[in-house]
Design brief:
The protein is α/β, with parallel strands linked by helices and 220 residues long. The chain contains 9 helices and 6 strands, in the order H-H-E-H-E-H-E-H-E-H-E-H-E-H-H. The chain is 40% helix and 12% strand. The longest helix has 18 residues. The two termini are 23 Å apart.
Length: 220
């Protein structure tokens, strides 16, 4: 018998201890340019004026994805940056309706609610990621989150928790790894990435894309 799985899956099920496991493969990823609309079209569809900054979240509205932490971090940064918007892309589930309502209530109670945008489920995640200036990934548990690879390929700086294969994905980029639930740390990393000078951002973007194209494509 043969098992082919990313390291996080092998570790979760204890398969890494089996003598028969001789190779560990990273999460496969099929890169591709955003299709159809442009990032500017995405921003216009949400009513975000040109030139304003966007902090983004991609994940189903369930507790493990940490949308509540994203909302808290975004509010802190919005207080500092009058032109900052926060976009949440992700489906709501009937079984997690109470949690989704909690997230909605937190946004409704925010003095910056007009700059929050709940986009719901979107089929073209790379396109939406390309419309973000910073991608926040506050998950509490993951295996091999493809959204992180998609953000790296879209050259969008990532503020991510150290869950599943994320530490391996971001290896060599210099991006900090955060503890789940540490909203203050995520806020600080996002603040730094939003303020990053263009040359540093271009360097980081190149590191991220080279890493994902070198190790995480289906061909690699």
């Amino acid at each position: 018998r043969m098992a082919v799985a990313p390291p996080a899956i092998l570790g979760h099920y204890g398969l890494g201890r089996l003598a028969s496991v001789t190779a560990r493969l990273p999460a496969p990823f099929a890169p591709g340019a955003p299709r159809g609309a442009s990032p500017e079209d995405v921003r216009r569809s949400l009513g975000i004026p040109g030139g304003e900054r966007v902090l983004g979240f991609v994940g189903n509205l369930v507790p493990l994805k940490g949308a509540h932490d994203f909302v808290r971090a975004a509010q802190t940064l919005m207080a500092e940056r009058p032109g900052l918007h926060a976009v949440l892309v992700g489906a709501e589930f009937h079984s997690q309706r109470a949690y989704a309502e909690t997230v909605r209530a937190a946004i409704a109670a925010s003095p910056f609610r007009g700059r929050f945008h709940l986009a719901g489920f979107q089929p073209d995640v790379p396109l939406w990621l390309s419309a973000f200036d910073v991608f926040c990934f506050p998950s509490y548990s993951e295996a091999c989150p493809i959204a992180v690879l998609e953000a790296m390929d879209a050259e969008v700086p990532v503020a991510a928790t150290a869950v599943g294969d994320v530490p391996c994905m971001l290896e060599g980029t210099g991006l900090p790894l955060l503890s789940p639930g540490d909203t203050a740390a995520m806020t600080e990393v996002a603040r730094t990435l939003l303020a990053m000078p263009a040359p540093e951002r271009e360097h980081l973007s190149g590191l991220m894309r080279r890493r994902v194209r070198s190790f995480y494509t289906l061909e690699a």
